[in-house]
Amino acid sequence: MKTIILKTASTYLLPVLLLFSIFILLRGHYLPGGGFVGGLIASIAYVLHAFANGLSNTKNLLKFHPGFLMPVGLALAFLSGMAPLLFDMPFMTGLWYPEALPVLGVIGSALFFDIGVYLVVIGVTLTIIFTIADTI
User: Fold this and answer.
1) Structural domain count, the chain
2) Is the dihedral angle over the CA atoms 96, 101, 105, 110 positive or is it negative?
3) Burial class (CB in 10 A: 0-12, 13-18, 19+), 99
4) Beta strands 105-108 and 96-101: pairing type?
5) Which of 42, 53, 119, 132 is least surrounded, with the fewest CB atoms within 10 Å of its CB?
6) CA–CA distance, 15 with 97 (Å, rounded to integer)
7) How many whole angstroms from its chain centre is CA 54?
8) Rounded to whole angstroms, how far apart are CA atoms 83 and 80?
9) CA dist., res. 113 & res. 108, Å (int)
10) Within its chain, how far is the Cα of 88 from the centroid?
11) How far is Cα 134 from Cα 42, in angstroms, rounded to an integer?
12) Considering the entire predicted model, what is its pTM?
């Protein structure tokens, strides 16, 4: 299904959906959302682009294999959980920067855990969908 309407719409929707996924990622600290939902939205953006423009064009857009995001995200999530051990605190205890930053708000170890989950979800979802699409 490669219609001109879908191609045009996907060109404009890709950056909007990626921006929305980052909004959902950052919103997850205080309200529903977070790394998992944000990662799914980002994956949907790339899948929509693949439907409209072909899988090879989407892979060229990514510049690297999405499976690379899985170990990076796992490492980031693991390190955010291990950071409190440096301060003699239990594993996965929240560490918070005392000052609020303009757009992000209060930054803590939970944000880095969410970013790790975000990257893992994008990597797993796109790897599975791209692998299935290659075999069809």
Assistant:
1) 1
2) negative
3) exposed
4) antiparallel
5) 132
6) 30
7) 21
8) 5
9) 9
10) 30
11) 20
12) 0.91
Helix (H) or strand (E) run with residue 108 in it? strand 105-108
Length of the chain: 136
Helix (H), strand (E) at residue 101: strand 96-101
Alpha carbon distance 135, 119 (integer Å): 24
Q: What is the band of 28 on the pLDDT scale with cuts at 50, 70, 90? A: confident
pLDDT digits (tens, 9 = 90+) for 51-93: 999 999 999 999 999 999 999 999 999 999 999 999 999 998 9
Long-range contacts, stretch 60-64, CB < 8 angstroms, 24+ apart: 62/126
Task: Classify residue 44 as exposed, middle or buried by CB count within 10 Å of its CB (0-12, 13-18, 19+).
Answer: middle
Q: How many other CB atoms sit within 10 Å of the CB of residue 122? A: 25
Residue 32's pLDDT is 74
107 vs 42, residue with greater confidence = 42
Rounded to whole angstroms, the Cα distance separating 8 from 123 reads: 26
- Which residue range forms the structural domain that includes residue 61? 4-135
